[in-house]
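Hi team,

Filling in the usual template for the complex we talked about on Friday. All components are listed, including any nucleic acid strands or ligand strings, so the model treats them as one assembly.

SUBMITTER: L.P.
PURPOSE: interface mapping
COMPONENTS: two
RESIDUES: 925
SEQUENCES:
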Amino acid sequence: MTSTLTRRVPLGPLTDLPVGLGHAFQVGDTPLAVFRSREGKVFAVEATCPHKGGPLADGMIAGDQIVCPYHAFKYDSATGQCDQPSACALKTYAVSVVDGAVYVEL
Amino acid sequence: MIRLNTITDDAPATRRKLVIIGNGMAGARLAEDILAADPGHAFDITMFGDEPYGNYNRILLSNVLNGSQEAKEIFLNPLAWYEENDITLHAGARVTAIDREAKTVTAGDLTESYDTLVFATGSRPFVPPIPGTTLHGVFLFRTIDDCNNIAAFARGKKKAVVIGGGLLGLEAAKGLMTHNVEVTVVEMGPWLMGVQLDEAGGKVLRETIEKLGIKALTSASTQEFIGDRDVTGVRFKDGTEIECDMVVISAGIRPNKELAHEFGIACDRAILVDDTLVTSDPDIFSVGECAQHRGMVYGLVAPIWEQTKALAHRLTGKNPDAVYTGSKLATKLKVMGVELASMGRVSDVKPTDEVVQFAEPGRQVYWKAIVRDGKVAAACLLGDLGPADELVRLFLSEAPAPARRLEMFFTGATVQGEEFSLADMPDDKQICDCNGVCKGTIVAAIRAGKTTVPAVGKATRAGTGCGSCKKMVKGLIEAINGEVKADPSESWYVPGIPLDKPTLVAEVKKRGLKSVSAVLVELSTQQDEKTKNGLASMLAGLWGKEYIDERDARYINDRVHANIQNDGTFSVIPRIYGGVTSAEELIKIGQVAKKYDVRMVKFTGGQRIDLLGIKKDDLPKVWADLGMPSGHAYTKAFRTCKTCVGKDFCRYGTNDSTALGIAIEKKYQGWEFPAKMKLAVSGCPRNCSESTVKDLGIIATEGGEWEISVGGAAGASVRKTDILCRVKTQEEAIAMIGRFFVYYRDNAKWVERTYDFVPRFTIEHLRDVLVNDSLGIVAELDAEVVRTCDAYVDPWLERDKPVYAGQFEDVRTVPLPMA
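RESULT (copied from the run log):
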């Protein structure tokens, strides 16, 4: 039925994601930044920083946070909350890894 | 985006256009006051600022550069604030013209119209228009950077002259004394601290400081600073001279009134305004250090806040009759260990005034109060501030002075100690005037466990402005928590590991930690990007070929070997050794620029060519087509060695500066450091390649030698280099540079530029170690130079062999599955 609005989209093999870094994806109309932490967590957030449009996939991971490459605004990888009181939170997307393949819920 | 001030339904159909020239503390405060006074948003606000930033606290810039504070911490209003509040900020745009008929202002190509215009252009330090201000050894004194430069230069000097006997000048003199320099303070006016003291007070102060060993010359007009390259003395208008080997100028500030004046607005010392803060043009107003109101130009924050509030209320109609009638200034200071309180103008005595004085010459105590119409109109106290609080109260409240005037000085009331008054202070009393933080907010933060001054600052922003309220913050921490914890993070190499660099290096070596992740697991207390970047740089230098290079510890620029731009594209700067290129190279660069549709081709300040707007996936192709090595313009590394033409062509050239520059760049290309490293070689003392403001500069001297100097800067900080040594040959110069490089690389804190590093270690120490080999490590340093040079690989060769998945890949497109 149409009651569920989310779709599960395959993003390719986990090994195509660099360890400890992010990569930019365009899934249909949705631009995403997908990260694979050194500890093995995979997470996805909206692609650009609400502050000045920094490409978050070019950022860094610091602990549980994503760091924007432009002005080092930091976002919680799980909740999307920003460390700056004036900036909005990032939209986050559920990600799963099944048999070495990465899926995102859109 | 969050919009804090969305346009409400009752907003006027046509909003009035308010343009503010100046984005400093006055301009930005006015914008804040207007937003607060006018939630209905009757104004379209446009602001012009000289600098390409939001509004920040200039005094703290050097903290940012040495890494002890993050840039965003010193922003009073980050750029996002302007957006959120619908304010158009033209940052980096200097207004050059005003058309008062058409009601427009122009900055470069940009023209904005206004209904109401406000000048908040502030002030600048005053440099006396006399010869010699550019000699080596002549300094301005206004910022922390200046302090550091002066302190570094003062070592080993004998005689210093301070121009200006005001508060700052005396502070400079005191600072110089601690370096065992003989100090003379030169004041143009008839006595010291002319703003705060009268003649008798000035005399008491003079006696006090002379006891401390500082000479004071008053009514002394400086004619010029004497010297050839280095300052050697000061000559006065009366023909007398004094010898010195350094000069510190602290001659006050000057309002930025020139633009207003040029376009016909009435000015005196500053832009003239009346009680409505309007200028001679009814649509143009002025606030802050550029405005002159009832003869006064204020340089303190409190009166300026009163001005912006009155103007905001008036403009928005919240209180259309709001006026500013002047500020009463009462200050307590400590100069050279001498306590001083000042209110009103004590040197301004009218015939009908009652003057009440008390002096105790043996203790250098001097009190004076001026009673006008039965009220305290002005007072100054020196040496003992016993009655200060009572006088300030009488002065500010304009309450009648006691009938027995001596009770102003000798009351039964006890003098309240600071602790008592802090505890007594209401919660809504503002402690930090820069960021508007009240006592209650600070107390709450302390109760929540913030027990260091920086921790309170991080939680509330209190004390992160000018820093003058830090003492009160400390007092509150003591009162609530019993003690203040010291902040040890100052000495750490990176913020996430509580160790200074030597200890960290020793620990890393002992435990054999060869990757950033290994160090983080074993030693870090917090993970952040600066810690990762700093460790990556340190470990690469420490382990050389054994280093386990994890790319997630690198910043994007260091992952793709190019500089990310504000549209997500990159800039590519190939290496052009010594700034010397060829027809073939230029043709190649031109062809690449055409082929990849490069948006801008630009000469850099380092004598090379920047190709801007390259897409990430084009980077490897661009590098291959160029066939030139990386210029490392994106990273903390050896950048360029700028050169002048030198003796091959130049009529003045005494040595071959281009050959040395090319040799240096070929040898040291690719070296990584805790911060970037810029060099220059000049072929004669005319110094056309600006060697004296580089991290390391070399100047050819007439006798055929090379003079090597280090620790210069010409960016946000400006600092002249300190001379390390002179050498005879190109080979010796190259060897000495290598030693300095290794010593700096292995001892500097992360992001500590040479202009902080050199004064921290002192040039004498560096000379001892690198030239005289006092530690016996020169052979080791030389061996390390060889090792590091051997490890050089052009990072652009990764074009053929990316080291991780998607390194040079832009967005990966994934189709949506069929529903």
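MY TAKE: Strands of chain A lie at 8-13, 21-27, 30-36, 42-46, 60-62, 65-67, 74-76, 92-93, 95-98, 101-105. The domain at 8-105 of chain A is CATH 2.102.10.10 (Rieske Iron-sulfur Protein).

Thanks, L.
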